[in-house]
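Input sequence (417 aa), recorded before submission:
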Amino acid sequence: MVEQESHEDSVDNSISVTRQKIIFVGDAATGKTSIINRIIDNPFNDIYEVSIGIDFMSKNIRFRGQNTKIQIWDSAGQEKYKGLIPSYIRNSSIVFLVYDVSKRSSFDNIMNWINFVRNIEKTIMVLCGNKIDLNREVEKNEGEELARKEGLLFFECSAKTNENIKLMFYSAIAGLPSFGVTDESEKENMIKELMEENGGEGFRQGGVNQDLVNKPDAKINVNGEISDSNQKDELASKNIANLKTQINEKILLLKKKDKDIINLQISIKNKDIIIKEKLLKIKSLEEEKTNYLKENNEIKQRYELILKKLEDKLNINSAEEMIFEYEKKILLLKQQLKKNYEDEMTKKIEVIKHQYEENIFQLLNNIEKNLIKIAEIKLKDLKDKYNNIYSTKEVELNQKCNDITKINRNKIGRAHV
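Predicted structure, token format:
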């Protein structure tokens, strides 16, 4: 888990350099990047920027004459980047599991992150509840109980107010086996010494640690180059740059796929609009039919009322004659209304029929063209096939004719003899 490099200078005292690897994991927007920025003494940024893939920072700390180079890896919390994380968890010294105390879902998912880490590497794990400056959805005792149950270190902090950030970081560092400190009181003294001796110095983001390069006692090889540890930092930075490039290419590919999906959705939406228009037309025709029936019933009710009044005023015979006349008029009116409705419906049906006939005609033309093409291809294949057969048979026939001619000549020759 720990990679150590020890170099002894022929003139100066020996410098022992220990390399440790730390990674921050957890759901998106829990404040992992903000915590790391506070550790490296960068100011807090109120503007949220989504982390892409994996980012790299490092710190050189000194303790009782020993230099320890800490590599800090910042992982993105989105599900699509989760496949990148296992290779950075492997051989890690400490894993910080970060959740947001103001967001219950991030705490509910923290057990998945714990199991995710344990399936990859057995390492020191620190449970970190961030954003204690906001209104809580997760109480402190819930985090303490989970940490106690799972055997984790536990801290609550605020990247915004910088509360408990350095204490959490150096407390985790003090638990590393490379320091050989097991007594709790000695660990407390070590944490104080680490904070007093290092503070915010010796930090840088990516690349080679310039603090070590510029120091007069930095280890230099016989060719005047920086020692292997710094060369490995440069190689790691280059690998990270290549990884970021690959991630950006994948993001562009995903954006292109998103664009294709949007175009498909637009196409589906246009088809839905056409279907809705047709449904509206059908609904309009049904409403016209309903209105016609309603008008017919109103006319019928009106004439029935008139007939009732006439029956009261006139005798039965005259009333029957009037009823007959009115029924005749009603019949004529119904016939006229029916004719008008049928004519109007016929026109609309003809228009729709014409549109469908055009579409069917176009479809038939396309089918006919395709069938002609297929027929031509098959005819050509048959032609070639029969030409080959004909050529073969013709050769065979010529051969037989030649054989027969030769035999006849031989017979004629024998006859002459």
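Checked by second reader. Residues 1-15, 200-228 have pLDDT under 50 and may be disordered.
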